Amino acid sequence: LWLCFNEDLFVPAVEVKIEVVIPEKERSKEEMSPNGKASPLIYKVNGTARHYHLEEHPIASNPYHNPKDVVEASVCHVKDLENGQMREVDLGCGKALLIKESGEFYAMGHKCPHYGAPLVKGVLSKGRVRCPWHGACFNISTGDIEDFPGLDSLPRFQVKIEKEKVYIRASKQALQTQRRTKMMAKCISLSNYNLSSTNVLIIGAGAAGLVCAETLRQEGFSDRIVMCTMDRHLPYDRPKLSKSMDSHPEQIALRPKEFFRTYDIEVLTEMQVAAVDIKNKIAVFKDGFKMEYNKLLIATGNTPKALSCKGKEVENVFNIRTPEDANRVVKLATSKNVVIVGASFLGMEVAAYLAERAHSVSLVELEEVPFKKFFGERVGRAVMKMFENHRVKFYMQTEVSELREQENKLKEVVLKSGKVLRADVCVVGIGAVPATGFLKQSGINIDSKGFIVVNKMMQTNIPGVFAAGDTVMFPLALRNNKKVNVPHWQMAHMHGRIAALNMLAHGTEISTIPYLWTAMFGKSIRYAGHGEGFDDVVIQGDLDELKFVAFYTK
Q1: What domains, with CATH codes, occur in the chain?
Q2: Which of 61, 136, 185, 393 has its CA 20 to 30 A from that of 149?
Q3: Other beta carbons within 10 Å of 273
Q4: InterPro entries from the xrefs (predicted)?
Q5: How far is CA 211 from the centre of its chain?
């Protein structure tokens, strides 16, 4: 288990001048059906067998459709790179990542499609490049994304060796976009469907739900897919709600509207499932609408805990759950007094974001030090000091006893210690509970805390019902398959992919390493592994300068 704390620095890499280059049209396994053969897919909807094919994509003899869109350039001598080395190279109209492993050269996009991190600063190991910022992983042979976060893969470019020189041939467009969406199937004919039935129903439209839907299409699934969400928006980048609070929904959308139309992924917004009838395979919505399904994914996430103190109903008290919540908080907090309850990741990120915008930021926490359970006291105090240097005031080892209002709007926050804080807006970040209340009578196995229990293939105890994301307890390979809950954005992506593959009977088990990140005041914390207590913390680097790695041992 390790934690890294440093700055996201952009260091210019060595560049090699080049001529012009072109794109590559990839197909191969993306066009195969789930069984790996180019045969029709057969699925049952409401008991009726239907046969579906992927759309025909004739492969042209020339993989580059437009020669003017192509660049070819000499980028280095074959001896310039040793095995296991990477170099960012300039093709004149864009850059590529050149890699040498086991004597072979590979070239692909140089930026991570997630947030644009320079992959040359990442790690090359066993045929994969791992992003230096948030841990996404890409296969160097195909460019395919193999670990998350992020949705897109990398464009792959042709490499050839002539007279001891390495040449790259690439598409100008691919060099500029630095991303590649895997080829996907489409639904054969939506007009043939009964509106109240679907082959796959996905409850929840976060990372797990979206990745599940996309993976099904990537694997050739061409039957109906319906996602439903209580949210009013299409799937969006939820971590940004506390890291970039003034972002509008369209700015943080994971996919544009056109994407869902193109690949026939239906999204029902502002639709809440009230119950699931597993015997008859029917989801019952709050408004009475019913939908039959063949396969079900439950990815409803968590519900934020609310304060239970006196005055909890006053205006201007928020849980950050939607873009509208985040936007409203920023507007109310500007040049005003903010109180944040809970030194959670959400609470600390909100405090960092508002520190330079608000008149004052006060943070109330029951523990002695922020992040003590996660990072230990020494690291927690170092983080706390950084916040104090940015005018954030901490009130530790206490909690809120009352919220006072004036004209029905928040005016003061009273602590159990007796301290009274001026407050124009209050943000609550005291944890969350699984959003699984609607499943209590369903027969789906739920533990005493409300988490859905699944196996390594994200399957519940009910055939055809899968669960993913923050709401599940799953076997973690890193901990000898102990059942754990890991509410991380990266893990939700992987859950969704594993669930989709097993809806198609691939028999794929989850084995990824948990990874999370947070960013505050220009500093980044990255945390890998899964810790449940520790005996010692080994620090390498300078804790005072916040440039260190911490190893948590037990």
Answers
A1: 70-177 (2.102.10.10), 197-303+434-504 (3.50.50.60), 317-430 (3.50.50.60), 515-553 (no CATH)
A2: 185
A3: 22
A4: FAD-oxidoreductase/Apoptosis, FAD/NAD-bd_sf, FAD/NAD-binding_dom, FAD/NAD-linked_Rdtase_dimer_sf, Rieske_2Fe-2S, Rieske_2Fe-2S_sf
A5: 9
